[in-house]
Design goal:
222 residues; alpha+beta; Alpha-Beta Plaits; 2 domains; 9-stranded mixed sheet; two-stranded antiparallel ribbon; 11 strands; globular; hydrolase activity; hydrolase
Length: 222
């Protein structure tokens, strides 16, 4: 049996980056299931549970905005991190931010509003004290109080998400012309058990809703 939760998620900006874009960030037209899962895990996560996204409601018009921002052009290598761990010292484990700064363009969404329906499932790491009822109630209490382990974000950390626990979603402001659209192939999630294998699904807006559960039942593509 699955136990569910509904969250209303808002933000001034969002960017759910398309992986096929190598240099500049370009957002999908709507929130991805993996981004929705990340918001739920920011509110409540334990090794005993796994969040599964069922539906994503697009409740505001899909609008894009072109933003230019400063980013770091590189990251610390895994080899350097392993060496520092073996040495027990972080000396030299840093980046020269000013010297490595680059200006990049981003095609982001603006003034987004989403309704997310999700449920949790127990994992093999669940103990005798772990039950679906216990964890869904913990998640609901934390969401209601605005508690989270880290700031929920809309694709990138610079775009914070305003999250509210709800029983029903407000009326959608998505124009009628956009409520039934084929959004193309969208990232579903990353399968870490299979070496970070990317999973995709065919995303479709039907009356303003992406039915992730239905797409998942039809099968995911790698």
């Amino acid at each position: 049996m699955s136990f569910g939760i509904k969250l209303l998620i808002k933000g001034d900006y969002a960017c759910f980056t398309r992986p096929e874009m190598k240099v500049e960030r370009v957002s999908y037209d709507a929130m991805t299931p993996s981004a929705a899962r990340g918001i739920l895990e920011a509110i409540h996560w334990k090794p005993a549970i796994r969040w599964v996204i069922d539906r994503i409601h697009v409740l505001a018009p899909i609008r894009f905005d072109n933003i230019r921002r400063n980013e770091i052009g590189s990251k610390i290598s895994a080899v350097s991190v392993r060496s520092a761990m073996k040495a027990g010292s972080v000396q030299g484990l840093h980046l020269l931010v000013d010297e490595d700064r680059q200006q990049r363009a981003m095609m982001a969404l603006r003034h987004v509003v989403y309704g997310v329906e999700a449920h949790l499932e127990m994992t093999p790491k669940a103990g005798p004290e772990d039950t679906p009822v216990k964890h869904i109630e913990m998640a609901r209490r934390r969401a209601e109080k605005g508690q989270h382990f880290h700031q929920p974000c809309l694709g990138v950390r610079e775009f914070p998400a305003d999250v509210t626990l709800v029983e029903t979603f407000p009326e959608s402001r998505l124009p009628e012309t956009d409520r039934n659209r084929d959004l193309g192939w969208m990232l579903y999630d990353i399968d870490y058990a299979k070496g970070r294998e990317a999973q995709f699904f065919r995303a479709r807006l039907q009356d303003g809703v992406i039915d992730v559960a239905r797409a998942r039942d039809k099968g995911l593509a790698q």
